[in-house]
Design a protein that fits this description.
Largest sheet: 3 strands, antiparallel
Number of helices: 14
């Protein structure tokens, strides 16, 4: 290792990547994204070359102002970049190169961010019911889609469900399966109080019985002969169903948005879907809770109230 007094983000970055691959449970996709963010925003910059021991909050603030000047990147992209810096700095703390992460001392509201593209339209309640009723009960992909509309899961988490994750009226989220069919046993959103869990509705329990009949011999709900659901095939089934029903297509990720939004519209408090979504803040959850009320219904409500 280079002399600790000269260790910088740049010199520690390769070591951190190796550490991420060998010692952490993050996916290959996440590491690839980390590397892209490094190459795009940090590689070759003055802040990455400066010895970490010499950097103060004001140095990072100067860099952040340059990156965000004129609203060049969204807040999400900025936070993604910052998470790479945080990761390297905490690696440096673990290696006893520095004792404190100065990024924690910065007020990030002072920077200007590019507006997010928030044009995310979830399925409405009527569309959700139409899709559930249209899909049959003897196809594993159809059952997976229907179950997904009763839960609030990432597609990888749905693929990673095991029968012994079910405890009474609840299902616990322990793992996910990525697109390379790798099982990742540590996932986003685990809170200090333990593993995430989602209550099972009567509709979900009915679907679980159907899934068990189709796939009785696997530990996993959706795995046969060592092969899990294909995300692409899952989405093709949704697309075909939407075409049959003349509904605008949304991918598996929008199913997650839709379920959370429908619950919120029907009186479930924000903090409840927050736990089920695996979000650390209510701000993240609010991003998901979109209007699922058709414009015509809103017009009728306004006419009723305002005349």
């Amino acid at each position: 290792m280079e002399c600790e007094s000269n260790s910088s983000l740049e010199t520690l970055y390769p070591q951190w990547i190796v550490w991420r691959k060998e010692e952490s449970s993050v996916s290959k996709k996440t590491i690839k994204e980390n590397m892209y963010l490094w190459d795009t925003f940090l590689k070759g910059t003055d802040i990455s070359k400066a010895p970490l021991k010499q950097l103060k909050p004001k140095d990072y603030i100067k860099f952040f102002r340059q990156v965000t000047k004129g609203g060049k990147i969204t807040r999400k992209r900025f936070n993604d970049m910052k998470s790479v810096m945080n990761g390297i700095i905490y690696y440096a703390i673990e290696q006893e190169i520095v004792e404190h992460n100065p990024l924690r001392d910065i007020n990030y509201r002072q920077f200007s961010y590019k507006s997010e593209n928030n044009n995310i339209i979830p399925f409405t309640e009527a569309e959700r019911l139409a899709i559930i009723n249209h899909l049959d009960d003897d196809d594993i992909y159809s059952l997976a889609i229907k179950l997904d509309f009763h839960l609030i899961l990432r597609i990888g988490e749905l693929k990673g469900l095991k029968w012994d994750d079910i405890k009474g009226d609840f299902i616990y989220i322990h793992r996910f399966i990525n697109d390379e069919n790798e099982i990742i046993e540590d996932i986003k959103g685990h809170q200090e109080e333990g593993k995430r869990f989602i209550p099972l509705t009567e509709g979900a329990k009915y679907l679980l019985e159907k899934i068990k009949k189709i796939n009785p011999d696997s530990d996993f709900l959706f795995m046969r002969d060592g092969k899990s659901l294909s995300t692409c095939t899952f989405n093709r089934h949704i697309r075909r169903c939407c075409k049959d029903l003349d509904i605008e297509y949304r991918s598996s990720h929008k199913v997650r948005f839709s379920t959370a939004s429908i619950m919120y519209k029907n009186g479930v408090k924000e903090t409840e879907p927050q736990k089920m979504l695996g979000h650390t803040t209510l701000a993240m959850t609010s991003h998901y809770l979109r209007s699922v009320t058709p414009a015509e219904d809103t017009l009728q409500k306004m006419n009723n109230v305002l005349g």
